[in-house]
């Protein structure tokens, strides 16, 4: 292995020398080949959850990151060298466990700003990279990966700057329609930030509701839909205890349309979130009163997917029975 690695490192050095002798637009393919070779050399074991778990000790991943990946991601303008940028984002995603917190923290703003790229590949890789980074866990004293490496305060600014561009891409149907990776990043970001993302989360419920209504006309991507509701639920859990009226104002009209259209794919999620809203509401809204009789119809209970949400929502009704009696 050491001998093969030595030979491949020689090729990498030769490619980098070539990249230094040609214009930037031509150097891109040489640098991209270097990243491909580095990943091929270094990875000896990996999992979908943790990324690389075993690396080739003869490959200096951190040096490669500092000399090629970080400068490429920080280069201007953002619209150039999309292939190289995508490969750099993939590199960080693959080696997310090996890269030190300090280096990742320094490059994170550059990673996040790539969400604004016109290239669907680049902004998708940017979203995936961020979502994987905030999931990185370090080992505790027992050797189990139980401690999140990154804390919400240090990641807050970079994560929240991605939300608006992501929602704009989805709403305007740019790039990949119903891009599940983008919506998953929104969901995981608010789940990670918790109360640190409350203010932006509340502002985000309006655009998410608009996307929900649009998707309800043709819910063709179940993974995207799941991530959409996960994003809404993550925000609701944080915001509804302190601002129930504002949360209801943003969501109840959209949920009303889902119920009116009887969108089967959305009903299980809608019932669950309505249960959260009803638990926290200071005053029972007309939608809850109109919905109660429908909850008792056999048709809804025949769909097994509806049952957990229906039970959750009925429990909320029982807890609020005095409000309905009035």
UniProtKB/TrEMBL annotation:
Coiled-coil residue windows: none
Domain Exportin-2 C-terminal: 131-321
Native organism: Strombidinopsis acuminata
GO BP term (any one): protein export from nucleus
Protein name: Exportin-2
GO terms, molecular function: nuclear export signal receptor activity; small GTPase binding
Pfam hit, one: CAS_CSE1
Exportin-2 central domain location: 1-130
Domain of life: Eukaryota
GO cellular component: cytosol; nuclear envelope
């Amino acid at each position: 292995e050491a001998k093969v690695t030595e030979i491949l490192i020689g090729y990498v050095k030769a490619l980098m020398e070539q990249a230094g002798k040609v214009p930037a637009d031509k150097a891109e393919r040489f640098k991209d080949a270097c990243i491909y070779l580095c990943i091929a050399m270094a990875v000896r074991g990996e999992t979908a959850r943790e990324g690389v778990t075993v690396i080739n000790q003869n490959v200096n991943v951190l040096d490669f990151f500092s000399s090629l990946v970080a400068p490429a991601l920080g280069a201007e303008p953002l619209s150039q060298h999309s292939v190289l940028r995508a490969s750099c984002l993939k590199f960080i995603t693959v080696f997310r466990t090996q890269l030190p917190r300090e280096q990742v923290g320094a490059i994170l703003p550059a990673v996040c700003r790539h969400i604004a790229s016109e290239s669907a590949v680049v902004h998708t890789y940017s979203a995936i990279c961020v979502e994987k980074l905030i999931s990185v866990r370090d080992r505790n004293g027992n050797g189990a990966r139980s401690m999140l490496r990154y804390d919400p305060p240090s990641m807050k600014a970079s994560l929240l700057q991605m939300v608006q561009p992501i929602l704009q891409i989805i709403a305007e149907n740019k790039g990949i329609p119903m891009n599940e990776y983008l919506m998953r990043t929104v969901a995981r970001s608010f789940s990670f930030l918790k109360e640190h993302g409350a203010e932006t989360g509340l502002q985000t419920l309006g655009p998410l509701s608009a996307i929900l209504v649009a998707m309800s006309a043709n819910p063709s991507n179940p993974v995207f839909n799941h991530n959409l509701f996960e994003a809404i639920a993550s925000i609701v859990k944080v915001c509804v205890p302190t601002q129930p009226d504002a949360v209801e104002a943003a969501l109840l009209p959209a949920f009303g349309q889902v119920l009116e259209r009887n969108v089967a794919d959305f009903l299980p999620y809608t019932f669950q979130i309505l249960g959260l809203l009803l638990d926290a509401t200071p005053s029972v809204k007309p939608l809850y009163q109109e919905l109660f009789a429908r909850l008792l119809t056999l048709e809804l209970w025949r769909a097994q997917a509806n049952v957990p949400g229906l039970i959750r929502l009925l429990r909320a009704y029982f807890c609020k029975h005095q409000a309905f009696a009035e």
